[in-house]
Amino acid sequence: MLQIDRLEVAYGALTVLRDISLTVNNGEIVTVIGANGAGKSTLLKSISGLLPPSGGTIQFDGKEIARTPPHQIVKLGVSQVPEGRQLFAELSVLDNLELGAFSRGGNAAENAKELAHVYDLFPILRERSVQMAGTLSGGEQQMLAIGRALMARPKLLLLDEPSLGLAPMVVRSIFEIIMQLKASDLAILLVEQNARAALSMADRAYVLETGRVVSQGLGKDLLADPQVQRSYLGESIAH
Question: Which pLDDT value is given to residue 126?
Answer without folding.
Answer: 96
